[in-house]
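Lab meeting, action items carried over

1. Structure of the two-component assembly. Owner: GW. Status: complete.
Input record:
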Amino acid sequence: MTIPQRDIDLINGYCNGSLTDDDFSELESRLRESHELRQLLIEYRSIESAMPSALASGTMEKAQASATKKSRVIRRLKIALLATAAGLLLMFGLYFLRPSSEPQLATLDSLTGSVRWTGTGGQVVDDVQSGRALTGGTIECLSVDSSANLEFPDGSTVTISGMSALTISDDGRKELHLREGNLSATVTSQPEGRPLRLLTPTAELEVLGTQFDVIAADTQTKITVNEGVVRVKRLTDGKFTDVKSAHSLVATIEAREPLVAIAIQEPVRVWKANLGQDKTAGDWLPIAHALRIEIGREIEAGELDADRAKEVYFKRLEKFEDDDGFLTAVPRRTGREEQPVIYLISLNIPQRQAGPVLLSERSRLRVVGRSKIPQEVTFSLAARNHDRTVAGRYGVKQRVESTFDIEIDVSELRELGNGTSAGGLEAFVLDCFANEPGLELAHVELLGPEE
Amino acid sequence: MEEEQSATDHEVFLRLFTRFEGNLRAYVASLLPTRDGVDDVMQESSVVLWRKFSDFDQTGVDSDFLGWAFMIARYEVLKYRRRRATDRLQFSEDVFELLASEAERTCTTQIERQLALHECLKELESKQLAIVKAVYEDGSRIKDVAEQIGRSPTGLYKSVARIRERLANCVRTRLNTSAEGLS
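Predicted assembly:
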């Protein structure tokens, strides 16, 4: 049965005792018309009436355990994040290597998690230490909780975080290639005619002196400029524009939209993911395709008559929005051979027309999905400070199985190492990963403190 | 008269009432907006059922008791509605009648629903279960619970609605699965 959401809301309001008189009149009118709605009300009320005895008959231990679970979750999170800190190997080839005579270009000022450096002569250094002098080469953050902060001799700094890879070179001007991931840069004034050049899969940036953030994936690059001006060229069609302070721009591979920067608005406290658009890791299956597959299987199993397939398809499709679907975790090989493959979904948290997404201690992350087997999933938010410097990664582990609909308090998300909370920071990436395949997400949103 | 009823009658009544109390409570809950009202009507109904138990034909099957009990409970709900005629959220006569007829059918399977619910509660996250306990086991109003745990009432209303929907889907699936298994 398909019941409009408004009707379901009215029934819930009735059960909650929160209906206004007008709402109640509307509910009565709808109940007169709809057998399905009457059935739903009876169903809800029957379940509610059975709740005390169902709770008393065996779920007490779980409920009592919940009070102590929070501290255990944080403890387990620390262990789990340490365990995964070996990191993820990015699935692409290394950028070219420089001759050994090349001078030092930057210093690895600080790092967290597992970071790999591939430098002169192709020498691979796992577990690179802070303070290392870097010539031309590639630095990779191998896990979702890794970060690396590079300092250049002229005082410019570049931080990459999460699963990111950055190649640095200098042929008279700084050149950076961000193949994938998150980068935040503070660039001092560059010599006249020799701006810093940053390349991503879909965009080329020229920077004279500014502070900006970049999130790069195969299909899109998002640039947020906090100070100064950055010239951005969309590689697909060669169009370019200047992005001013407090503006952001997304350069996509398809180049369907005009290349226009939009002003950064006031922070918002709620965010709903558009999984198909926001993903930077994960296989997207639009709902229309998922339903076709489902119906095909039912026909094959003899559960559905092929003649009714079209009718059933459209009836089921009615229940969904156009941008509904499933995002399936994809395997990522970890940085070292002895580390297991993990299955990752990564979402860019875009500002779109609104401002940055501000986390509050009382905000909650709602995640709806399914897992083919019971397993623990790590939910991790990358967040930054108001001054746009990267603050870190904040995560928690949750056990999920079959279909799940969970809410995670932002106050439970803790940073690796120091255990600080993400409250008050701005979120810009969400990662969900598990050790086994079969994790799918259907809905992700950040609920504000008042939700 | 109750003193004329035998000890055996008493035992039979207790057995039947205990067996079907959940069905009856679900039926009454489907017709009234508040838990207080449900408790009042259940109390009155149990007294009337015992008083009139000698009129009940015990030679039939147990399920006949449920049909008889539904009839008496419906009458008690009507009496309660008359006493509380000025309360908000009282359905008008025609909607009440529609709900009463359909609730009888649905509430016949309340025991299966309760067993399914027991399993479905195990699938909730601990935080969701804690909310369910606070709202349903302790019998507190959602508004009061929200205040106790430092959340906005609107936020908690939404959380409870989502949990309710999730449990209803889970129970429905389990009932359908067990019905298919029997067919």
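2. GW to write a short summary for the group page. Key points so far: Chain A is about 20% helix and 40% strand. The radius of gyration of chain A is 25 Å.
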